[in-house]
Amino acid sequence: MKTQVVIIGAGPSGLLLGQLLQHAGISNIILERQSPEYVLGRIRAGILESGTVDLLRKAGVSRRMDAEGLVHDGVEFLFNGKRYPIPLKKLSGKSVMVYGQTEVTRDLMAARNEEGGTTFYQTRNVEIHDLQETAARVDFEYHGEKYSVECEYVAGCDGFHGVSRQAIPKEILREYERVYPFGWLGMLSDTPPVNDELIYAHHDRGFVLCSQRSLTRSRYYLQVPLTENVDDWTDDRFWEELRRRLPDTLANKLQTGPSLEKSIAPLRSYVAEPMQYGRLFLVGDAAHIVPPTGAKGLNLAASDVNYLWRILCKVFHEGRTDLIPRYSELALRRVWKGERFSWFMTGLLHEFHDRDGFDQRIQQADREYYLSSEAGQTTIAENYVGLPFEPVE
Ligand code: RFL
Ligand code: PHB
Questions:
Q1: Which single residue of 100, 139, 301, 326 has CA 20 to 30 Å from 214?
Q2: pTM
């Protein structure tokens, strides 16, 4: 087989890149380890920045998002029982969209099927070769048979545990990491959200996020120690703990119901540099992970896709191979700002049991400053809705 770009991974990065390349007349094949049902069963991100929304529109997959997604012009913070609404639109000129990663992925899969894009699901043993040669090669197994694809470029969209990052030699790859001493216990339920806007709350018992997927589906998260086991959390225990961490005005409004999904995710900040090596580009979680507190994971994946798609269009249509090494530089500049914001939000809102008195007072002062000053709120707003993309020239 031969194609212009092999994309490893059919998560949001791989599918969105595939769709944009297809529309630009650049042939591509996607290789995915799991089945489509498995990929759609993963409950992950819920908030789209306006730049991500624009990119999904450019990719021609926004019909359902525009009809069903909820535009949020604000977000709320809460600590010491006091609520701080942040008017995102007023302060930054932009809004965010509530539309889940599962739905984005479903729309991208449907578009690819309709347009006849080639995707191999349930592949095994994907191997990347010849990244420094005149053509790269990707080998894989599919239903017990061995296959080989020759291509000009490989997009590693295979998430944190994928194989692509390992194709960069150890002496070239640099890794930066922070691991946090807690995780998020998430619960999805068909209950109306407790508030119109998302609420990020600090409480002495730990952080809480009240999020949503629609007007009838809620997503809540509780900060928990990493030693917690999800099986020890019955629905009743989850609702009870959530109520304890919310002020009475909200706790009394909370509508409870059976969970559709519950899981614990550890929190991590991680960046791999460079994001390009020979004919390979790393995209999304394959190159970087953020703690979910800033809602940046999926949005940074879309940011990488934006830069790579623009660069590959110029490479294939205008012969601009000089842009290839620019990908890493452009993508990383925005990635590090997303990393900084996610780290900052995590530090601002969580309960750190290992912090001494001084650090706790600084955290308190930070919360008071950022949430009560318009300048502080504007900083949060412009990062939350997403920083602008740089032009690719
Ligand atoms: P994905 O979504 O992980 O997709 C990678 C795809 O590659 C496949 N794959 C392979 N395919 C072929 N061969 C191999 N060797 C392969 N190895 C892996 C995988 O099966 C998968 O289908 O990465 P992508 O596309 O870069 O998208 C990134 C986003 O998914 C991610 O940033 C966010 O979901 C992060 N994230 C969250 N972000 C938020 O903004 N808000 C959240 O609430 C939120 N919750 C989460 C999350 C990430 C989680 N993970 C990864 C542990 C919750 C969890 C549990
Ligand atoms: C979610 O709805 O899953 C969600 C929303 C905002 C975040 C993280 C997760 O910051």
A1: 301
A2: 0.97
